[in-house]
Amino acid sequence: MNALYLVAIGSVPAQAMEWIENAAAEWYPLPIRRLPPLLIPEAAYDARRKQYQSVEFMKALAQAAPRDACRILGVTDVDLAIPMLSFLFGQAQVDGRIAVISLCRLHQEFYGLPADEQVLRERTIKEVLHELGHTFGLVHCNQPACPMSLATHIGLVDSKQKEYCERCGMQLVERFSALEAEV
Length: 183
Hints:
This protein is α/β, with parallel strands linked by helices. The protein has one domain (3-182): Collagenase (Catalytic Domain) (3-Layer(aba) Sandwich). 36% of the residues lie in helices and 21% in strands. The chain contains five helices and nine strands. The chain has helices at residues 14-27, 54-64, 117-135, 154-158, 166-182; strands at residues 3-9, 32-34, 45-46, 51-53, 69-76, 80-82, 85-88, 90-92, 98-102. A five-stranded mixed beta sheet has the order 2-1-5-9-8, with helices on both faces. Strands 3-4-6-7 form a four-stranded mixed beta sheet. It starts with a strand and ends with a helix. The mean pLDDT is 94.
């Protein structure tokens, strides 16, 4: 069966990768595998904005994806953006194989607050569910507590639950059933 691959891009805390692996294993009925860390793509840095363009991360993930990769999720700790948005918590190909999340703005320290590992863990899991949900065809949900709801600031991430709403959960089950039928 095809696998879900996880890969750190740049320096990512080992503990965060464990949280991500556990969350992925809980929600996605696929073998979970890790790839060796990737370097941050040189072309990604935008000196004017002091951020990294996520498209370059997506390209690096596509190149690194093994043949049996059903999905590949990259995890970085640098600040991501795209030209039309001032920042991203993550990005994914809707109904595609590639997704990336950034831990940068999930840290309490980014907002001038003391570090809080529990808050970082919760936010990380929510973003993993959000971006991987996109790869399985889920779109933004109108239920604010659903991980698939759009989050344009950290308060919206904090207001999400760590589980899909009934509608998104059912859509995900349908996607997995379709995947199994293909095998």
